[in-house]
Specification:
This protein is 36% helix and 19% strand. It is α/β, with parallel strands linked by helices and 930 residues long. It has four domains: 1-104; 152-201 and 215-363, P-loop containing nucleotide triphosphate hydrolases (Rossmann fold, 3-Layer(aba) Sandwich); 370-660, P-loop containing nucleotide triphosphate hydrolases (Rossmann fold), CATH 3.40.50; 667-919, Rossmann fold (3-Layer(aba) Sandwich). Strand 16 (521-527), helix 14 and strand 17 form a beta-alpha-beta unit. The longest helix is centred in the N-terminal third of the chain and has 36 residues, at 70-105. The structure holds adenosine-5'-triphosphate.
Length: 930
């Protein structure tokens, strides 16, 4: 870069030197005039010589004097020697230095004669820095005593526009100049990287005829003479699109982006405008000025011939005279002879070769592997995320998640390739950004295993290091979607607080202020997100407000939402809340997608299979970019990339947490269970897993205070057995051997095997376990326990051994317990005493009732003794009296329970019962066991 800058400054100095030398020479001639005034005649002539210029006086002395005499010769002589003296220095080194500079700044096709390169399609990549100068001809200063030629070149691509003025007598020279320059640029870059637009006020075709083979390949567009507006509009659209896509990360130009990231894929657009010397209409004039002003940064190069206009951006000019030209680079005194053009035949041949090569390149099949860069994990996400997701004409089409397009909405009917698109897009991103730059949270509401690939499996033990959380088969568990949104909202606040502490507002600034902090961008993907809003209930309402919050404020905290759906049209949260929808600026429409793009934009309807419209402008037409999406789910595509990334993962990196709605969480693998330790004053009973991002256990603290009993309510045995078993096993882990007593009562026949299995495990842990079966035994046990309560009453310390009484099917013993004994008390009285007074004496009842009504029958009064409960197949309204009278919204669903602990909850939460197989197996699960 420094070298380029130095070169640029030496180019400027060299040309400046030329100009000042010439100017000084003329100025000195004026000085000479002063001196010759001393000698009147000589002075008179010298004055005239200076007035017409020495060069002219030499060519035609009659302009100075009628007949030559000594005074005239003397004046000429003096003028000559003065001029010579001034020129000597520049003539000695100037032309050589210029030649060397041009050779360096205009290498290859930019400066060499066409004989050396014409016909060979170019090889330069878009990301390579363009030549600084492009040769147009040979210059000379005729007035110089030793007029040595030097190459003349002009800055073009990314640097300056070009204005050509002719006197309309030399249209051929005008066309040759343009054609030579365009050929140089076309032949420098790989075919396709330079697109040419031609507009000629005078004719539709026939301008630059040699270039016409480019037309069929789409590399040259001849615009209708009457429709300049359309061409300018197209260029303006292009500028807008570049700003909202490639430059959306904050770079000021494609050039700056390329210098910073090595990335540049946008082709250059050379717009050639041939006028007739008449100015454009005011409106078009302004449009052209806008393109001129903003075009260079977006790869638009103007070559404007014979159109009077003021340009407020970098522009060089060439003025054509009869045989020669003058340029702004060389100043008015240097005469430029333009390079001769190649024959029409050669030009046509060269353009055909470029077109053919382009068509071949365009039609080559690009695959998932082409989305993966040569070097992995080199990009930084400070200002946004950008990666290709597909290809257009063999060139990558990128998606950008950044300040200007923070969130994306993906739509397409079932089977149109949404999941595949997500794999392509995420593949491009995870290959470019390391897990310190990008974290993924992925959720799929539909049945299936779309994102399971990212977690370790039996056949493929690798996982995606960027993935923090993967949710599959979430279908019914809409609460999991809520949990994710809640997590994002919390993270957003955490980031905002950190930013505030550093007195900044955005993630990008926070990263700059706190470079040692870890602030990856977060991409949260929710596939089939319409499930989240499937019912008009509190989940939908909460999801809507969370979504609004994250969509609105996530932008500045680097949190990006990617929502995909088969049908966005019915999602009230979107249509009813334009504030949410508007934040989803990036729209991706797969074939036949409805309503993802703007209403008038029907591009998705005509889309071929495995293509997508990628639109960074909220779906309006001019933002459409059509891309072919490679197969990203076949074997050897994403899985292969994942394996490479997995091998690069940081030591100690943990696999993503998996939430699989079709499986029950294994108690033995849960950190909340394996981490339980003995010696706790108030042990917790784990009952199931709540639906949150961390997979936390639902826990009830069994402390020595009233109401610390647990009711499991519902008719399904497996659910009740799971909750009671998990509670017993977790409590057992928190007491040293023989320091807790378990009484297990199997009151219904079907639980006998479960009870025996539990007994075995509790005994293995060294706990005294009294197991009884049948209702008579239950009546007996409650009597014994009630007496124990009486015995213990008055004790306040924790000296007593804790007792856990597990009742499987309490209600089955109701009739038997109703009978009164000799002392006129019944089994139910004993049970009620147990529930009421037990917890304070460290006797806790954990009972299973088969309906809510039956719990009430047992208690025969207020339900305060049941401090915590888990209900399964029970409707919400039956539970309100157990939840402090509040309305409970709950429709039972298979293998899901509702958990409420009156000491900590304001409202019940959904839990998944545990799979106990591992925890009941012989051997003690270790802390942190997998
Ligand atoms: N670009 C592609 N190239 C080749 N095959 C593809 C491409 N996109 C999708 N497919 C194939 O089409 C099928 C459906 O794709 P995908 O699962 O991505 O669609 P979807 O829109 O997510 O559908 P659904 O909503 O039913 O899951 C898959 O078998 C996938 O392999």
């Amino acid at each position: 870069m420094r070298k380029r800058n130095e070169r640029r400054s030496s180019i400027e100095t060299a040309f400046e030197h030329l100009r000042t030398t010439v100017a000084t020479a003329l100025g000195a001639a004026e000085n000479e005039l002063e001196r010759v005034r001393a000698s009147y005649a000589q002075r008179e002539f010298a004055q005239r010589i200076a007035a017409v210029g020495l060069a002219r006086a030499e060519r035609d002395p009659s302009v100075v004097c009628d007949s030559r005499d000594l005074a005239f010769d003397g004046a000429m002589q003096e003028a000559r020697s003065e001029r010579e003296q001034i020129f000597t220095e520049w003539s000695g080194h100037g032309p050589d230095r210029l030649a060397a500079l041009v050779a360096e700044a205009a290498p290859g096709t930019a400066g060499r004669p066409w004989q050396d390169w014409l016909g060979e399609p170019g090889t330069a990549e878009a990301s390579s820095l363009p030549p600084q100068l492009w040769r147009i001809g040979t210059g000379q200063v005729p007035a110089s005593p030793d007029p040595r030629p030097f190459p003349v070149a002009v800055p073009m691509i990314d640097e300056a526009h070009l204005r050509i003025t002719s006197n309309r007598q030399n249209l051929e020279a005008r066309e040759s100049l343009v054609q030579n320059l365009v050929l140089r640029m076309l032949s420098h870059y790989k075919p396709g990287l330079v697109r040419v637009h031609v507009w000629d006020v005078a004719q539709l075709t026939g301008t630059l005829p040699g270039l016409y083979p480019l037309t069929n390949a789409g590399l040259l567009t001849a615009h209708d003479p009457t429709r300049l507006g359309e061409m300018l509009e197209e260029l303006s659209d292009h500028i807008r699109r570049i700003h909202t896509s490639a430059l959306n990360g904050g770079h000021i130009s494609l050039r700056a982006l390329a210098e910073d990231t090595g990335q540049r894929d946008e082709p250059w657009r050379i717009a050639v405008l041939f006028g007739d010397g008449e100015p454009l209409r005011e409106e078009q004039q302004q449009q052209l000025q806008r393109v001129a002003r903003n075009g260079l940064a977006c790869g638009i190069q103007l070559i404007v011939a014979d159109l009077p206009m003021t340009v407020n951006s970098s522009v060089e000019s060439v003025t054509l005279h009869a045989e020669e030209a003058r340029t702004s680079m060389t100043g008015p005194e240097a005469v430029v002879r333009l390079d001769a053009p190649p024959s029409r035949e050669l030009v046509t041949k060269a353009c055909s070769a470029i077109a053919t090569e382009f068509v071949t390149r365009r039609s080559r099949v690009r695959t998932f592997a082409d989305l993966v860069p040569e070097t992995l994990w080199v990009q930084r996400s400070a200002s946004g995320l950008q990666a290709p997701a597909g290809f257009h004409e063999g060139e990558p089409v990128k998606v950008t998640l950044g300040d200007a397009s923070p969130h994306t909405l993906i739509g397409g009917p079932s089977g149109s390739g949404k999941t595949n698109f997500l794999y392509s897009m995420l593949g491009g991103m995870v290959a470019r950004y390391s897990p310190d730059e990008l974290e993924l949270y992925l959720l799929d509401f539909k049945e299936g295993v779309s994102f399971a690939q990212f977690t370790p499996g039996r056949r493929d033990p690798t996982w995606l290091p960027h993935a923090q959380l993967v949710g599959v088969n979430v279908n019914e568990d809409r609460e999991f979607g809520l949990a994710l949104l809640r997590f994002l909202a919390t993270e957003m606040r955490r980031r905002a607080d950190a930013a505030k502490a550093h007195e900044v507002t955005k993630l990008e600034e926070l990263r700059a202020e706190n470079p040692s902090g870890r602030w990856p961008r977060i991409v949260a993907v929710i596939d089939e997100f319409q499930y989240l809003f499937a019912e008009r209930d509190t989940v939908s309402a909460q999801a809507t407000s969370l979504l609004e919050d994250v969509a609105r404020r996530g932008r500045s905290q680097g949190i990006h939402l990617v929502l995909a759906s088969q049908d966005v049209s019915g999602i009230e949260a979107f249509w009813g809340k334009p504030a949410i929808f508007e934040q989803f600026i990036l729209r991706i429409a797969l074939p036949k997608a409805r309503r993802v793009l703007a209403d008038q934009n029907e591009a998705a309807l005509a889309l071929p299979r495995w293509h997508a419209v990628i639109n960074h402008e909220s779906g309006v037409k001019h933002g459409n970019e059509v891309a072919r999406i490679p197969d990203a789910t076949a074997k050897g595509t994403f899985d292969e990339l994942q394996r490479r990334l997995w091998e690069r993962r940081q030591e100690g990196a943990a696999p993503p947490r998996l939430f699989d709605g079709s499986l029950l969480p294994a108690l033995s693998e849960l950190p909340d269970f394996t981490g339980l330790m003995t010696g706790s004053e108030s042990p917790v009973a784990l009952l199931g897993q709540v639906i949150d991002v961390n997979g936390t256990a639902a826990a009830v603290r069994m402390e020595r205070s009233p109401g610390r009993n647990l009711a499991v309510i519902g008719s399904v045995r497996v659910d009740a057995v799971s909750v009671l078993g998990a509670a017993a096993l977790s409590l057992a882990r928190q007491h040293d051997a023989k320091k807790a007593r378990f009484t297990v009562l199997g009151l219904v026949e079907e639980v006998a095997p479960d009870v025996e299995q539990l007994k075995g495990k509790l005994e293995e842990l060294g706990h005294e376990t009294d197991v009884r079966h049948g209702v008579d035994a239950a009546v007996e046990v409650v009597g014994e326990l009630a007496r124990k309560i009486d015995d213990r009453s008055g004790s306040v310390g924790n000296t007593e051994t804790p007792e856990y009484v597990l009742f499987y099917g309490v209600d089955a013993a109701h009739s038997a317990m109703e009978k009164k004994g000799h002392d006129f008390t019944s089994g139910l009285d004993h049970l009620r005493k147990l529930l009421k007074q037990g917890p304070e004496q460290r006797v806790h009842v954990l009972g299973w009732w088969r309906s809510a009504q039956r719990v009430k029958t047992t208690l025969m009064g207020p339900v305060d003794e049941i401090g915590a409960w888990v209900a399964f197949d029970v409707h919400g309204q039956e539970l309100s009296s157990f939840a402090a009278g509040q309305l409970v919204h709950w429709s039972p669903r298979a293998r899901r329970g509702l958990f409420f602990d009156r000491s900590v909850h304001s409202q019940p939460e959904v839990v998944l019962p545990f799979d106990l197989a591992g925890a009941l197996a012989a051997g003690i699960p270790e802390e942190g066991a997998e």
